[in-house]
Amino acid sequence: MGKLERKIALVTGGNSGIGLSTAKQFVNEGAYVFITGRREAELARAVKEIGNNVTAVQSDVANLADLDRLFAQIRRDKSKLNIIFANAGVAKYAPLGSITEELYDSIFDINVKGVLFTVQKALPLLPDGASIRFYYSDRLHRRQ
User: Distance between CA atoms of 6 and 38, rounded to whole angstroms?
Assistant: First the structure.
């Protein structure tokens, strides 16, 4: 038995990079994994690469209706969630004098609002002992 056997995980931004690698590792350790991403073609490629025990849900973490749909599907399919890897994020750059409100909003909507509301909306699905890991953090947060 793998150390994540019978665990249900969510990896936001699981269609590429660190998120995809994490989703693969979780599956290898026995978890069933939901991955998210904004682009359907990349999600399909990621599912094929991961192989089994994975469901892709096209969604944008900055869109609260998408998050509601995501967690409704997880509730319907698996009824709980043991692990959240809040990985979805963007890095966009501009010279200080060229930063617009739109650029600022797009970065903060994904990197801050998306993480906050992903975790908040997942809370009803998390049993005691569930874990939440943020992509930009090296600290593991456990629900008490």
Answer: 27
Amino acid found at 127 = P
Residue 133 host element (H or E) = strand 131-134
HEC string for 29-81: CCCEEEEEECCHHHHHHHHHHHCCCEEEEECCCCCHHHHHHHHHHHHHHHCCC
Within 10 angstroms of residue 93's Cβ, the number of other Cβ atoms is 8
Average pLDDT of the chain?
91
Give 76-98 pLDDT, tens digit per residue.
Answer: 999 999 999 999 988 888 999 99
Residue 83's DSSP bridge partners are: 9, 131
Distant-in-sequence, close-in-space partners of 129: CB < 8 Å, separation ≥ 6: 82, 142, 143
- Integer Cα distance of 40 and 64 in angstroms: 18
The values of phi and psi at residue 85, to 5°, are: -110, 95
pTM for this entry: 0.89
